[in-house]
Design brief:
The complex is a heterodimer. Chain A is mainly alpha-helical. Chain A has one domain. In chain A, about 70% of the residues lie in helices and about 0% in strands. Chain A is globular, with a radius of gyration of 19 Å. Chain B has helices at about 5-25, 30-55, 65-90, 95-125, 130-145, 165-185, 190-200, 200-205, 210-235, 245-260, 265-285, 290-300, 300-315. Chain B has a domain at about 5-240. By secondary structure, chain B is mostly helical. Chain B is globular, with a radius of gyration of 20 Å. Classes of the chains: A mainly alpha, B mainly alpha. At the A-B interface, helix 4, helix 7, helix 9 and helix 11 of A face helix 5, helix 10 and helix 13 of B.
């Protein structure tokens, strides 16, 4: 592999990793406050892509002239709102009634919700793949020499960075963010300090789902064929990314996503390309064996 | 005559009965016969998974992967080596076919058991959600590896498998599986599985090694899944990696949950019920007089699965058959006191 090719693969890996990072953040935040894996998270990502698919032909024609760049932004923001509402609804209907039950019950419900979104989506949207509309001109940037960087890659990267910064500010600087951190640190003490646990959990689901929705749109821009089952693999891989970075840790999720994206791209470019989808799982098993807490995770002793 | 002997007699009776039924299988409509055999295969899968998910309290989402290993190994052996085997035994007689089939089934089961050991060993460190994802991952890895193995056709699938599976084989193995699992759980050793599920720390304190029990459960469950895979391969005569995907694993999990985790009788009923329901839905989706929306929902069976799962967890986490005998406190029952707030640490 020449050095140009190496850098090219690195760039492709980074842009793939950005999607994983955005999805992984939702897993990690929900895990932080509820200690459970929201299996349906990958499907919120799929719903995000479909929101973009149905919204853009209806919204984009209204943005003409100097307003044109605002069109995709509006689609993105609306999608994030819809996905946030979806996440909050799922939590209210399916997970909240089970909160005092054993974890396994919630896990099974989450699998049920995930299957419902996937196959309900197949029922509503149709099972055949749809081609995602072009929200913005997709062309290679000039002046990058032998490297190819497309405008969508660049846009995805910029949006990811903006969302990451916004998320960090929300978690570190706002009262709700502080409540979130308190809840993930010690739920009992947080509740005793007067934090409204239900509100914080709803907020967390909303935030995570909005990020997944954004990831759905950005993903569909780069891989413009969307179908109702598209969320399954990226969802599971993003979970691996969250574990890799240390589940419950926000910077960990971002870094884990990027590492996974890069590793996967390099394997995809190597002789083992047909094993690409098995890489994430092998990586997961290795991490869980070697360092179960992940890169940034805290090792929590088990209380008896 | 005590209870233990009754079980042995029942086992023998079931085997003889299945042999008898098999004798008349030519008189049964081929489609019905296939459905009855699938029911048996699903019972074996579900009862085996119940040992892992129900009795031992683990959560495996990769059962189809073990089934795939059993199916491919047994199919490969019977395809590639049957000629030599028959030659050595002097032609394909009733007994040489039986010996060959039993041999390849056990080989498939053992191969799956080895895979179960490989999955079980990392499982000692993991619980609940993590274990679910890792087993899901293993199931997918197995599928990807098969897809990349040219000797068994890769993604094109593997055909030309002899049609050895009969009612006798299927239901004898069903009877043996149920017998083994019930006897195991009833034994002094087997109570350890329930102890590990109910409280691993307490189990350790009384000298039960949770790790060993978990791994044993995985290996045994995988072994039965491998045998079921062998039966499946020799029944359909063509197998394809995508037939052993995540959805297949979920199907088995639903049978276990529907039947009530930790109840072999319930799980057996659930396997029968769900297999019949899924076959019936095939017809429903073809009934022209039904409104189109009903037909489309019937054709898309996973929507029904998912709603069943969610409704069951919200309304009846102990499964449909709460009145059937089971061991220990049912998973998810109100009798298990847990903290109200989300528990800590993976």
């Amino acid at each position: 592999m020449s050095s140009t090719e190496f850098i090219q693969q690195l760039i492709n890996g980074l842009s793939l990793g950005a999607f994983y990072a955005l999805i992984a953040l939702g897993y990690t935040m929900v895990y932080g406050v509820l200690r459970f894996i929201n299996f349906a998270h990958g499907d919120v990502f799929m719903i995000g892509a479909f929101c973009g698919y149905y919204l853009s032909p209806r919204l984009l024609p209204h943005f003409t002239g100097w307003l044109t760049p605002l069109g995709p932004v509006t689609v993105l923001i609306l999608t994030m709102l819809i996905c946030a509402l979806l996440g909050i609804t799922i939590e209210k209907l399916a997970y909240r009634p089970l909160r005092s039950r054993p974890k396994l019950t919630v896990l099974i419900t989450a699998i049920g919700v995930s299957l419902f979104l996937e196959y309900g989506g197949q029922f509503v949207f149709g099972a055949d793949p749809k081609s995602f509309p072009e929200l913005m001109p997709d062309r290679a940037l000039e002046g990058t020499g032998a490297l190819t960087i497309t405008t969508t890659q660049l846009a995805a990267f910029i949006v990811t960075v903006i969302l990451l910064v916004a998320l960090t500010l929300i978690v570190k600087r706002t009262r709700l963010g502080m409540a979130m951190r308190a809840l993930s640190n010690n739920p009992t003490a947080a509740a005793l300090m007067g934090i409204n646990v239900d509100t914080v959990i709803s907020f967390t689901f909303g935030l995570g789902s909005a990020l997944a929705g954004a990831a759905g749109i950005l993903f569909a821009l780069s891989y413009p064929s969307i179908d109702p089952l598209m969320g399954l693999l990226p969802g599971i891989k993003a979970f691996v990314a969250a574990v890799l970075g240390g589940i419950g840790s926000i910077p960990g999720a971002a870094i884990g996503g990027i590492i996974l994206g890069v590793v996967e791209t390099f394997v995809g470019a190597s002789a083992f390309s047909t094993y690409r989808d098995a890489i994430a799982f092998s990586l997961l098993i290795v991490i869980l064996l070697v360092r179960p807490a992940g890169i940034f995770g805290r090792v929590q002793p088990e209380k008896v | 005559m005590n209870y233990r002997h009754i079980k042995k007699w029942l086992l023998l009776a079931a085997i003889i009965l299945s042999g008898f039924a098999s004798h008349f299988s030519d008189a049964i409509n081929a489609y019905y016969l296939q459905v009855v055999i699938f029911i048996g295969i699903n019972i074996i899968l579900a009862v085996g998974l119940n040992l892992i998910n129900g009795y031992t309290g683990q959560f495996s989402l990769g059962h189809a992967g073990f089934m795939a290993i059993g199916a491919y190994v047994s199919a490969y052996l019977s395809n590639e080596h049957s000629a030599g085997f028959f030659h050595a035994l002097g032609g394909a007689s009733f007994f040489s076919v039986a010996a060959l089939f039993l041999g390849v089934l056990i080989a498939g089961g053992l191969a799956a058991a080895v895979a179960g050991l490989i999955v079980g060993v990392p499982s000692l460190r993991l619980k609940g959600d993590y274990l679910a994802i890792v087993t899901l991952g293993f199931g997918e890895i197995i599928r990807v590896v098969i897809q990349n193995t040219d000797a068994v056709g890769g993604p094109r699938g593997y055909g030309g498998i002899a049609s050895y599976t009969t009612l006798f084989w299927t239901y004898s193995i069903v009877a043996i599986t149920i017998y083994v699992v019930v006897s195991l759980i009833d034994s002094t050793y087997g109570r350890g599985f329930l102890t590990v599920r109910d409280d691993a720390v307490a189990a350790e304190a009384v000298g039960i090694n949770p790790t060993r029990y978990k791994v044993t459960a995985f290996v045994l469950g995988a072994f039965f899944a491998g045998i079921a895979g062998g039966l499946y391969a020799h029944s359909t005569t063509y197998i394809n990696p995508s037939g052993f995907d995540f959805q297949r694993s979920i199907e088995i999990v639903i049978m276990v949950i529907l039947g009530g985790m930790g109840s072999t009788a319930g799980v057996t009923f659930a396997a029968i019920l769900l297999t019949l329901l899924l076959e019936y839905l095939r017809f429903v989706s073809g009934y022209q007089w039904l409104p189109e929306i009903v037909r489309r929902i019937a054709a898309n069976r996973v929507i029904i699965y998912s709603l069943v799962l969610i409704a069951l967890m919200l309304l009846r986490p102990q499964g449909l058959f709460g009145w059937l005998p089971r061991r220990g406190v049912p998973v998810g029952s109100a009798r298990v006191k847990r903290t109200k707030l989300p528990p800590h640490a993976p």
